[in-house]
Write a structure and sequence with these properties.
The protein has about 375 residues and is mostly helical. The chain has twelve helices and five strands. The chain binds protoporphyrin IX containing FE and 2-acetamido-2-deoxy-beta-D-glucopyranose (4 copies). GO terms for molecular function: metal ion binding; peroxidase activity.
Length: about 375
C-alpha cells in the first residue's frame, strides 16, 4: 500500500497548540481527534462545480502580456509537475502555488488546451488525496520525503509532492523519492531524456521515444530502488507524464508531435513557456498514453523484497480501464485515507468524488458511493 510516514510532520505540527492547521494541507489520514482540532481553525468552502470545455478551443498565443513569466517569490511553492509549475510562473494559476481544481482545470485548458475530462480526471484524483477538501485548496508541491532537499515552500505541507499517491517513482526528470530530490529537476536524468530523443526520435522527443524512455525508467527503478512501486494511482500519472510533453509542449502551430528537447527544458527546468509559445491546436485527451504502454507492456506491481523483485499486483487498476481506476481510487485509496468522515468533511468528500466521477461518465462508468448517497 502507500506510505503514510509523511503524516508524521503533520501530527507533530498539530501537537503544537499555537500553530493553526495549514489551510492548504491535506487532511487525509488524520485521526478523528486530530481532524477535530484542524477543523476548529478551518472554514468550510464547498467546491464550485468543475468548469466546462473551452468555447474557443484552437491554438493561440498563451505566453502573452497578461501572463508574464515571473520567478517564484520566497514562500511560493513549486513541485514535481512541470505543467502546473509553468502555469503558476505565468499566473494562470495562483503564483503562490496554492490553488484549487476549478482554477487548475481552467488554467490547464486555457494555457495548454488540456481536454476538459482529462483535466477533471487528473485534478480531482489528485485533489482527493493531496488537497484540503475543507478549504478547497491544493498545494502544487511541498515536502516530499525525509532525505531529499526540500522544494521552496512551507515544510510541513506535502501537497502534490506526497509520495506514492500521485507523485511517485520512475519520473522522467526527477529521481525516485528513495534517493531524495524527487521534486527537483535532475540534469543527469534530463540528459538521458535527450539521449533517448537522439537515439529513437532523430533528436526530438516523440511517441516512439516516450515508449522507450518510459520502459527504461521503469527498468532503472526495478534494478536500483528497493522500494519501487508502480500501481494506481501512480501508474496513471506515470504514463500521463510520458505523453504530456508531446501533447502540450509542442507549439500548436507546429502540431507534429515532435518536441525539441530545448523546448522541453524550458518547461521541465525553467518552469517557463518559450517565447511566443502557442498552446496545442485542439483539446488533447491523452489517449496516446496507451501506445506508450503498448511499446513495452508491463503489469502494475512493485519490488516486494529489494531490488529486482518486481512482482505484478493484480489488485491494481490498469491503465486502459479508467472505470476501475476511478472505482479503486474512491473506494480504496480515498476511503483508506478517510475511513470514517462526518459533517463537513463527509459532505466535501462526496462532492469532490462526484466531480471526479463526471470525468469518466462519458466512458459509461457507473457512479459509486463509498460513503452512501
Ligand atoms: C490537471 C492537473 C494536474 C495535476 C494534478 C498534475 C500532477 C502531477 C504530479 C503530482 C506529477 C508528479 C509525478 C511524478 O513524477 O512523480 C506530475 C508530473 C508531470 N506533469 Fe502534471 N499534473 C497536472 C497537469 C499537467 C499538465 C497540464 C501538464 C503539461 C502541460 C503536466 C505535465 C507533467 C509532466 C511532464 C510531468 C513529469 C515531470 C517529470 O517526470 O519530470 N501536468 N504532474
Ligand atoms: C493568490 O493567493 C493568495 C493567498 O492565498 C491570495 O491572497 C491572492 O489574492 C491570490 N491571487 C489571485 C490572483 O487570486
Ligand atoms: C540525479 O539522478 C541521478 C540518477 O538517478 C542520481 O545519481 C543523482 O544523484 C541525482 N542528482 C541529484 C542532485 O539528485
Ligand atoms: C519519432 O522519430 C523517429 C525518427 O525521426 C521516427 O522514425 C518515428 O517514426 C517517430 N515517431 C513518431 C510517433 O512520430
Ligand atoms: C467498495 O469496497 C467495499 C469493501 O471495501 C466492497 O464491499 C464494495 O463492493 C466496493 N464497491 C465497489 C462498487 O467496488
Amino acid at each position: 500500500m502507500f506510505d503514510l510516514e509523511y503524516l508524521i510532520p503533520l501530527a507533530l505540527a498539530l501537537s503544537v497548540p499555537a500553530r493553526a492547521f495549514p489551510a492548504h494541507a491535506s487532511l487525509a489520514g488524520l485521526r478523528t481527534e486530530e481532524w477535530n482540532k484542524a477543523l476548529a481553525t478551518l472554514k468550510y468552502t464547498p467546491p464550485p462545480p468543475p468548469p466546462g470545455p473551452l468555447e474557443c478551443s484552437g491554438t493561440k498565443l498563451v505566453n502573452d502580456a497578461d501572463h508574464p513569466f515571473m520567478d517564484p517569490q520566497p514562500g511560493d511553492i513549486r513541485g514535481p509537475c512541470s505543467g502546473l509549475n509553468t502555469l503558476a510562473s505565468h499566473g494562470y494559476i495562483n503564483r503562490t502555488g496554492i490553488t484549487s481544481c476549478s482554477e487548475i482545470i481552467t488554467a490547464a485548458m486555457e494555457g495548454f488546451n488540456m481536454e476538459n475530462n482529462l483535466a477533471r480526471f487528473t485534478c480531482y484524483a489528485a485533489f482527493l488525496v493531496d488537497g484540503n477538501v475543507i478549504t478547497d485548496k491544493l498545494s502544487i508541491g511541498g515536502k516530499s520525503d525525509k532525505t531529499g532537499p526540500d522544494p521552496p515552500g512551507p515544510a510541513t505541507v506535502a501537497g502534490l509532492s506526497t509520495h506514492n499517491l500521485f507523485e511517485g517513482d520512475t519520473s522522467m526528470t526527477r529521481a525516485d523519492a528513495y534517493f531524495g530530490g524527487d521534486n527537483n529537476f535532475n540534469e543527469t536524468l534530463f540528459q538521458e531524456f535527450v539521449e533517448y530523443s537522439n537515439r529513437y526520435g532523430g533528436g526530438k522527443y516523440n511517441l516512439t521515444v516516450a515508449g522507450e524512455y518510459r520502459f527504461k525508467r521503469i527498468q532503472d527503478s526495478i534494478a536500483t530502488n528497493p522500494t519501487f512501486s508502480f500501481v494506481a494511482p501512480r501508474l496513471f500519472s506515470a504514463y500521463s507524464e510520458s505523453v504530456n510533453p508531446i501533447n502540450f509542449w509542442v507549439d500548436g502551430r507546429q502540431d507534429d508531435g515532435q518536441l525539441d528537447p530545448e523546448v522541453a527544458r524550458s518547461f521541465f527546468e525553467k518552469m517557463r513557456f518559450p517565447d511566443d509559445f502557442h498552446r496545442a491546436a485542439r483539446p488533447m485527451n491523452g489517449e496516446n498514453e496507451l501506445e506508450v504502454l503498448a511499446a513495452h507492456p508491463i503489469e502494475p506491481g512493485s519490488n516486494i523484497n529489494g531490488v529486482n523483485t518486481y512482482t505484478p499486483d493484480p489488485t491494481s487498476g490498469k491503465l486502459a480501464d479508467k472505470c476501475t481506476l476511478y472505482e479503486n481510487h474512491v473506494n480504496r485509496t480515498v476511503r483508506s485515507l478517510y475511513p470514517d468522515p462526518t459533517g463537513d468533511l463527509l459532505d466535501a468528500l462526496k462532492i469532490n468524488m462526484h466531480y471526479f466521477y463526471t470525468s469518466v461518465q462519458h466512458r459509461g462508468c457507473k457512479e459509486i458511493f463509498p460513503y452512501g448517497q
